[in-house]
Amino acid sequence: TPVKDIVSTLEDYPIVTPFQLKFWEWVSFYYMCSLGDVYRAALPSALKLESETHVFLNPDFEAAEPLTLNEQKVFYLLSPEKASTIAEIEKRAGLTNAIPAIKSLADKGAAYINENIQDAYSAKTLSAVRLTRAYTDDELNDMLSGLGRAKKQQHLLTAFLHLNENNPIVTKKQLLEDADTSPAVLSELVKKKTLEVYDIEISRFDYGETNIESACELNTYQQQAYGEIIKSFEEQDTTLLYGVTSSGKTEIYIRLISDAISKGKQVLYLLPEIALTTQITNRLKTVFGNKLAVYHSRFNDNERAETWNRLLKDGETQVILGARSAIFLPFTSLGLIIVDEEHEGSYKQQDPAPRYHARNAAIVLANMYKAKVLLGTATPSIETYHNALSGRYGLVRLTKRHEDIELPQIAVVNTKELRRKKQMKSVLSPPLIEKVKEALEKKEQIILFQNRRGFASLLECKNCSWTPRCSHCDVCLTYHKGQRMLVCHYCGSTYRVPDVCEECKTPTLEFLGYGTERIEEEVNTLFPEAAVARMDLDTTRGKKSYEHIISRFEDNRTNILIGTQMVSKGLDFGYVSVVGILNADNLLNYPDFRAYEKAFQLITQVSGRAGRKNKQGLVMLQTAHPSHPVINFVKHNDYESFYQTQTEERKLFRYPPFFRLISIVVRGRDEKLTENAASQFTHALRQSFGGRILGPGKPPVSRIQSLYIRNILLKIENNASIQKVRETILFHQSTVFTNTDFKAILLHYDVDPV
Ligand code: ADP
Ligand code: ZN
Ligand code: ZN
Predict the structure, then answer these.
(1) What is the reported pTM?
(2) Which residue from 142, 182, 304, 727 could staple onto 44, CB 3.0 to 4.6 Å apart?
(3) Pocket lining: 402 vs ligand 1, CB cutoff 6 Å
């Protein structure tokens, strides 16, 4: 193809820096995906000038009439912040033509089409009004009296002059409001060439006035930890700050950020998406003011593009508080990266590629800039703690909570025993009900944690045990009472609730299991006088709904907060005295080598919400296995012993941190063909890797969105050459997948899966 001329450029400066290109190449190399995949994840759509149709959810939509089935399918896929293309919607909803449903949703006001996208690249503008030229006072007076009979115009001009006295910029909106008149009157004055309307560029963010406060005085323990971190950074690039919940890690970060920016360095402060609340944003804003920019997926594309450009162009932005994708921003003088809640699995992107781990990638990014990394957590990941103990990372501990408040007391409730004695009349055990009652009487708050959303986890026939399943995925459906629908948690498809069993035709269907929705109902019955709120994926779809739930709870307007793991993330509440963990067994019975690690972290983190500020809190942990080793470690806050048992097991079974894993995922519409491709690939890989290759196996959910899935697992020694392993895998891929039978087979790699 002939080389074409460049007609014009959009900007007179490059929007991507050489450092970014180098880093993105590393991501594509290490995580075994295409460079295009990385570009797509890194650049906000607004900087990509895509011309495709995009659909957004209107978060404030309330249905006046029930939506049709297809409309529902589309509606529950949409997000208010993230654009969905029509192709994506059709794929996820399992529809061949989603356009009619999208159009009628737009007509009903439930969705927007292409909003935010057209003027994507340009800054946001606002209409303002000014005089066509400079006038003397005399001229102005003449002009006003000249308008003698046009009273409305006279009034408008007077209002303009009045506003303009204190304000160089008078917006059209403000002027019309102040003069209480219509745009037509303004048009008359524009026609007479007295006033003119022009555009001004404004920021998409409301910077407002913030009161800059100085950072808190650090307490003795914080002061000591801070000193140790500084010292550790003299020798190590990466340091772990292992500080119990509520020990005041944030204040230490603030001190380190101030140090870095006073040396003219930029700071990246990473948090898991879900922990990026207004609480933390406001705290940082009061200290860093307009030096702070926030970057995560709840901002739309234009807002993200603006932050990108600000970072590139103005020297003012020095602190970025962001979710995992913030590692792709155009930093110019990065000096420090803070990865808070470093243990969080959500730092790993699952789908689509690049399947990168933001914590690990951040360490590589810092290395390119010769910047330092601080990993912070109350429950270190096994990998990170291993690196700290082996001397690869520095290690600083903070074992006291701020103001010496004690860690919560953990009481284990044996639900098996209570069930045997027929005392479990609800998901809340009698001892938990008692404690909730006492807390309510003392006007203290309660958090109830259940790791499942929806109403019931299953609908089952009492007669023949039939349960409804998703027709696109190999899973049972969850009943959502609010929607009166069965929902697939893997693909989002919704189904009507059957009246009779489809197998034996008897009307004996019953709900099994408890989701947050059902718990909310039970709690309302048990404590009718309490104000109850629920926080899960279903109640936080709107742009502001998450913040509303949190701020109501902060202000003590909600007594009981029920939620999924969302309630465990980085929230700091002052009046929580009781935390109930309704079913710890859900967490322990997960088929994954990290299940215990995740359970330990989640229970400890949820528990950490209890007893902040004024006194020791109480955690009621319900389980049918009260003597389970993990329960014991959590109860005694014994991370060290927990770590010992975990590392022994992992060494024995060849898992991280002793071995590296690469998960190879083969998917296809045809089961036989998928199976066949997976076995051939496994066979080929085994020639090079021998016993390091496991599989092919069926994952617990072996079909999602109509695609059959087979997994192959590669376990390689930590010291193996990444370059060589990669080349070997790709060589076998090219030999096996050149077979045209496998044209329709999808293949991807998940390096260091979590
Ligand atoms: P962590 O992140 O370690 O769980 P936080 O940083 O949220 O802990 O701190 C817990 C609470 O203690 C917060 O309400 C915070 O404002 C308060 N706090 C921490 N350090 C100080 C300090 N030095 N002075 C005053 N308040 C502090
Ligand atoms: Zn039946
Ligand atoms: Zn499904």
Answers:
(1) 0.82
(2) 304
(3) yes
